Amino acid sequence: MNADSVPLKQALLGLIPNLRAFAVSLCGDIERADDLVQEALLKAWNHLDSFQEGTNLRAWLFTILRNTYFSECRRRRREVEDRDGTKAAELAVHPGQQGHLDMQDFRRALNLLPPDQREALILVGAAGFSYEEAAGISGCAVGTIKSRVNRARSKLTELLGVTTSRDFGPDSATEAIVARSVGGGPRQ
Amino acid sequence: MAGKNGSTSYTAPAAVEEASAWQPPTSRQEGQDRQTAANEEDAKNQSSPERPPTMDTQRPSHDRKPRGMLDRSLQAQLGRQLRSIFSDVASEPVPERFIKLLEELEALEAREKRR
Questions:
Q1: Fewest CB within a 10 Å sphere: which of A9, A133, A157, B60?
Q2: ipTM higher than 0.85?
């Protein structure tokens, strides 16, 4: 370690809050997130010499953390089959009021996104990386990041049941039920 | 608007629909500066009363495009919620365990160096 590594370590410490934020939004669980951060920090520490001075340390750390997360996901997937599938079937998120989505609902919906889409959305939409930087972190093409962000947004909206058509009143199914129970047509 | 004029020969390929679906939020972000600049210029030239540029988003959506025509305010809200999940944690102080971890790693390294 040379003298340069001292400010680098300080920078490492300063980036921990950001790293935790990324980990929590990625895995949706603060305890698991902190384990991910710990593992990422250890890996980063042991490979500090492979970090190129002058490049983006934050992006470098995020890359290590997401690689840790995704290899863990792969391991878990082998252990527990089709977990996301059952979770998706259980979900029924219906915001009580138009335009006032519950934070809890949002977290649930976010966790139901495919991990690669969630990652892209967080990197671009919350962590403030450019599409290019996000592509570098995820190790894929810029176009892939863009389409993941796009799909993530549509999926979120779908999961939360808030497409525009519903923003302007109850959906047709609800209307039909109401109409039947009241004994009139949906619209007089 | 064009669709209501009778002939509906326009059929957007799926790829185009997809592309336009994500454009509103991003172009809103990137275009914000440009938009404010344009507004300022507008005000200079005409000193017109304040006119929000996004009035047309209040229109009910077309039924054929339930996905592409996401309400802007809704997208903005989803964006806010996403950022708040992130920034809530990012604003927390560094937990003790990580400060200790880095200290231990540093101490370990110092010991190895002395050998």
A1: B60
A2: no
